[in-house]
Amino acid sequence: MAAVQDGPIEPEPENEIKTEASNEFPGNPGDASGGVPPTAPVAAVATEKPAAAATDSTERQTLLAVLQFLKKSKLFESEEILRREAGLLNETGDSQGAAPGGAGLGGGGGAEPESGDASSVLSRVAGAVAVAQSANATPAPAKVAPVVTGGEDQPDVNVVLAAYSQQGDPVLYPVYYSGLKRFIDSVLDCHRAELSQVFYPLFVHMYLELVYNQYEKEAKAFFDKFHGDQECYYKDDLRILSGLTKSEHMKGNETLLDFRTSKFVLRISRDSYQLLKRHLQERQNNQIWNIIQEHLYIDIFDGMPRSKGQIDSMSGSLAGEAKREANKAKVFYGLLKEPEIEVPLDDEDEEAENEEGKPKKKKPKKDSTGSKSKKQDPNAPQQSRIPLPELKDSDKLDKIMNMKEATKRVRLGPESLPSICFYTFLNAYQGLTAVDFTDDSSLVAGGFADSTVRVWSVTPKKLRGVKTAGDLSLIDKDSDDVLERIMDEKTASESKNLYGHSGPVYGISFSPDRNYLLSCSEDATVRLWSLQTFTCLVGYKGHNYPVWDTQFSPYGYYFISGGHDRVARLWATDHYQPLRMFSGHLADVTCTRFHPNSNYVATGSADRTIRLWDVLNGNCVRIFTGHKGPIHCLAFSPNGKFLASGATDGRVLLWDIGHGLMIGELKGHTDTVYALKFSRDGEILASGSMDNTVRLWDTVKAFDDIETDDFTAATGHITLPENSQELLLGSYMTKSTPVIHLHFTRRNLLLGAGAYNP
């Protein structure tokens, strides 16, 4: 039923008031069928008792259907637990103990708790429901699935749990819809934009209801008449919908199932909602009101209605906007305190100075790499919130090198744009599908549609594998340079091929220490490769369908994967099963990214939403809507406060993680945005697209121009700058190479990669 987040709209009986979801009109309008029109909304408030009985009967039938399904699937333990919870243990006796018509329901007939057949239970409960309905003298009894006590003819779960039942004469559906359209077109401009949000979900559910009840001609006429009135960003959904012309087409369609079972969220001001409610009550337009109650969640806020531009910027996802309560959880977006590492004096620089004949200068010894972040960020999670791997000596050396590189980093800005080095994959006939660079930019890896992974060295240093077991046995293990001796110079080469997948490789990721490489594939596996031996160490099997993306945590050890099964999974390299499963998206999880503090994971989906998940407990703490197409890339700002996303709609959206708000919209690309990367200091965002261009954006200006306050966060009244071209710093076109990956080096040189498309 239509859920209203912040309480009742007007004073009503005390037993109807709920904090999260007010049931203004009790009963289940979707169950009123059989040619009898349902009770008018106004009258429904007064007739609470019969409606409650109808609801109760429906709940019992649903419960029985679930029990039947569990038994049929041989899930006896689950069935027993559900019976115990529902108090049906004493109703499983043999049918002789029950009076005809189910009079034995709930009686102490001494039935055996665990024995007896389900048919007697069904007959008794069906009888009891009939008695309850006759006692309450319900004028229009709820139509339930027939109960047959014999063999395989048990109630069909799909029928009992069906979302749609016939609501009046199908010929009148265009009349109802046209009447509502005329009303909304006639209201004040300030309310029209908000109320127009109702058109799309109403259109879809009315069409599906006609198809479900086998009014195929009426459904086609309804679709042809009104599909042109919907917003342009729903055209892909409408194209899929137009192919559903028979009730048989609806079975097994996952997208459709999600649309039916998840409520479409609309965010409407209180004044606009009152207008709509009053109109439907005056016209006694029960069919439309029933759909609103059953399939829509109306999130009401106090204040001025939103403008058309504000609504359009947040609309477009498969299930409407995010509920405001979904973005209220506290997010620790700050960075973890850096470990304190002693940095030795730079001997190379000293030697160079002496060679030039200059006196040796005394350099102050740096205390540690953690000197600039000794104070704990108040927005950062506790250091021990999730267990992170301990730093090895090699990790400490790498951090020292990183600090030395940072001192030579170019400070970027509008007046100082980065140089761009683009790696073009020529003759990539096997189809380049994914690219990644190591953090120190020394290695690049490519995933290909022929199921191979190739690793290249982009420095003069060649790739070397470990020697064979026979050669290793001859090495002195106590020598100081043992790590150098075990490497095989004979097989050194500029690139290495990795074989193991049995389908196209869609995502790859280097570990922070450059010892491992992850790859995910259409074969539903994620593989971990050793970059010492160039062999596959583990194949992680958990996904049931193709895996579209995978990424290592910034601290290593953990990694995330997402795929066609609409679930993102968190793994650890030493566990063959996932540690967390993040379920909630209504379509494929197309891209995944770790937050810089490794406590959160962001996932982008084909349902056109972005979700932020808490690694600690698996909760979804943010839902961002606004894209008009499947999301293909995500990037966190280095300080962890902001998130950028790119999609097939060609737009780049900027999000404030703390407030849970969209704060920027960057327009310019003419095709799918496939790659995003912030510079090392976060002053510039680079975006790469299938339109063969790299664009640079001024993120400092974008973030500073937006003022976020509590009211804005509560209502979503975000006014985005109309002209994002003011934020565009530069646009760089390749000859004919779509950009599929971007990477900033430690000195802020921008690297790009893609396959030449002749």
TrEMBL record:
It is found in: Nucleus. It comes from the Eukaryota. Keywords: Nucleus, Repeat, Transcription, Transcription regulation, WD repeat. Residues 41-55 have a biased composition (Low complexity). Residues 366-377 have a biased composition (Basic and acidic residues). Its main location: nucleus. Residues 169-296 form the TFIID subunit TAF5 NTD2 domain. Residues 99-111 have a biased composition (Gly residues). The keyword ATP-binding does not apply. Residues 1-58, 91-118, 343-395 are annotated as: Disordered. Residues 343-354 have a biased composition (Acidic residues). WD repeats lie at residues 425-458, 498-533, 540-581, 582-623, 624-657, 666-698. PROSITE patterns: LISH, WD_REPEATS_1, WD_REPEATS_2, WD_REPEATS_REGION. Pfam families: TFIID_NTD2, WD40. SUPFAM superfamilies: Taf5 N-terminal domain-like, WD40 repeat-like. Belongs to the WD repeat TAF5 family. This is TAF5 factor. It comes from Polyodon spathula. The gene is Taf5_1.
